[in-house]
Amino acid sequence: MVILTAAVVAGVCSRCPAAAKLTRYTTKYYILHTDLDKDMTREAVVRITAMGQEYHNRTRSFAGRINTRFPFYLYKNREDYLRHPGIVKGSAGMFTGRSLVATAPRSGGSWRVVQHEGFHQFAHKMIAGDLPTWLDEGLAEYFGAGVWTGDSLAVGVISRHLLARVKSMIRGGKLMPLEKMLEMKQTEWNAELKSQNYLQAWSMVHFLVHADKGKYQQALSSYIRDLSRGRSSSAAFRKRFGGNVKAFQNRYTQWWSKLDDNPSADLYDRINVLTLTSFLARAHYTRKKFENIEAFFRAAGDGTFTKIFAEIGKRNPAIWLPESLLIRTIKRIRDIKKWSLVPNGRGLARLQLARSDGVIMLGSFQSGSRISVTVKTIRPTTKPTGKSATRIPIPPEAIKRL
């Protein structure tokens, strides 16, 4: 899946700034040129592989089949990044029209800019025609907000902060009229860059993908195909979503206004289960088993996973993950009483999250030269009765060790 061995690494990039000696790595979807150290390069590789896969999975109904690898220049130092041809001063990453170029986030840092600009690169190559600016930027923001789980990029997250901002824009009448948004050109967008324009574009895309149990997904795919055939944004929108644009905007604003304060609670739990299961799969790959969930969590702070990934780095770098991802996830959970390890009947452990509302999420994996992780959600047929389980946080001394 990923080529990282020294024998197949090309030489220094000849067209890059003299101060940055970039090594070339061939990955599943990208040709990566970088000067990062070994572990940061490994993290970059697994992240961009998940990123490219999610672009493909989410756009397969209207994008072409990937038959090329995308050029990506990832610089350790911002000064070298700014010397790359075509870079706009003040940026942290951009798509130049051919290559994705970025300053590397620190280990565990936000990859939002890379994921945003990476979608622009993907869309330029894989989607026929020109996307209208609102959709191009809205989709880029949608993927930019994705959360990496180790083996996938989970998209569709609505943070409480962004939800509050969208609702505030709706209440304050600060939304751009939909008719204007549909026809806005890139030059107009760039002339006055506004965070609220990006926010509105993202919220429109999120609505079209997720509202009313995916009611508009097929129409969105058809809309993009119409655009690729040369139809104008406004005409194609009316054809696929109805002629009354104002009525559609009302449905959009009403849906957002009625969302509860934490609409992504289920998705955040799913992300945690996916992430922890990815690490459970790596432990199984090295034949490491855990007696219970406490032993699994404890292994994140006692050096066990350091040894696991040292072995994986030698045997199969393609499935390597940074321990920092595991530690951040455990810190985010804080409550171990809801978590357990359960057998699957074939000698493999599954990760179980049993919530106080009766919902159970089961994380399973298939381990080998590639890792496959899935989550099954089981919802109760009746509401649970009685008091919810007492929360038992991870002890402070354990957090300190992490």
Q: How would you describe this structure to a colleague?
A:
With 402 residues, the protein is of the alpha+beta class. The protein has 3 domains: 122 residues, Collagenase ColT, N-terminal domain (Glutaredoxin); 99 residues, no CATH class; 137 residues, no CATH class. It is built from 16 helices and 11 strands. The protein has a 5-stranded mixed sheet with strand order 1-2-3-5-4. It has a 4-stranded antiparallel sheet with strand order 8-9-10-11, covered by helices on one side. A hairpin with a 3-residue loop joins strand 1 and strand 2. Helix 4 packs across helix 8 and helix 9 runs antiparallel to helix 10. The protein is globular, with a radius of gyration of 23 Å. The two termini are 31 Å apart. 34% of the residues are buried. The N terminus and C terminus are likely disordered.
Count up the helices: 16
N/C terminus separation: 31 Å
**How many strands, what sense, and barrel or not for the largest sheet?**
5 strands, mixed
From the alpha-carbon coordinates, what is the Rg to the nearest angstrom?
23 Å
Strand content: 5-15%
Mean pLDDT: 88
Order of helices and strands: EEHEHEEHHEEHHHHHHHHHHHEEEEH
Helix content: 40-55%
* Overall number of strands: 11
Unreliable stretches, pLDDT < 50, 5 or more residues?
Answer: 1-11, 386-396, 398-402
- Judged by helices, strands and strand pairing, the structural class is alpha+beta
Shape: globular
Strand order of the largest sheet: 1-2-3-5-4
Number of domains: 3
